[in-house]
């Protein structure tokens, strides 16, 4: 699954267009490397999202095309 779609499905970022723009601006890294919106997300990837002053670091637990709102946080675990 593309990283911009994963960020939307997991609700880390609300809209896919915003996720796509964040990738274009170099605010999304996987394993310390800046990635494009087309990057293919795999389990155990460590994604770092820089949104203003906030930095969110998560590990991908599973990848799913569609999840309910209550289950979205099960796709990742927050790490520091």
Report on the architecture of this protein.
The protein has 80 residues and is α+β, with helices and mostly antiparallel strands. It has one domain: Structural Genomics Hypothetical 15.5 Kd Protein In mrcA-pckA Intergenic Region, Chain A. The protein is 20% helix and 26% strand. It has a five-stranded antiparallel beta sheet with strand order 2-1-3-4-5, with no helix packed on it. Helix 1 crosses helix 2 (16-24). The radius of gyration is 11 Å and the shape is globular. The chain starts with a helix and ends with a strand. The mean pLDDT is 94.
The averaged pLDDT comes out at 94
CATH hierarchy class name: Alpha Beta
Q: Classify the helix fraction into a percent range.
A: 10-25%
Total DSSP E strands: 5
Number of helices: 2
CATH superfamily: RNA-binding S4 domain
Radius of gyration: 11 Å
Low-pLDDT stretches: none
- In the sheet with the most strands, the strands line up as 2-1-3-4-5
Annotated CATH topology: Structural Genomics Hypothetical 15.5 Kd Protein In mrcA-pckA Intergenic Region, Chain A
Query: What portion of the residues fall into strands of 2 or more residues?
Result: 25-35%
CATH architect. name: Roll
């Amino acid at each position: 699954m593309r990283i911009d779609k994963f960020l939307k499905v997991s609700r880390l970022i609300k809209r896919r267009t915003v996720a796509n723009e964040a990738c274009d601006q170099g605010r999304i890294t996987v394993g310390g490397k800046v990635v494009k919106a087309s990057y293919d997300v795999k389990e155990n990837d460590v994604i770092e999202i820089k949104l203003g002053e906030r930095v969110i670091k998560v590990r991908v637990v599973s990848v799913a095309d569609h999840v309910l709102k209550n289950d979205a946080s099960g796709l990742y675990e927050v790490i520091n």
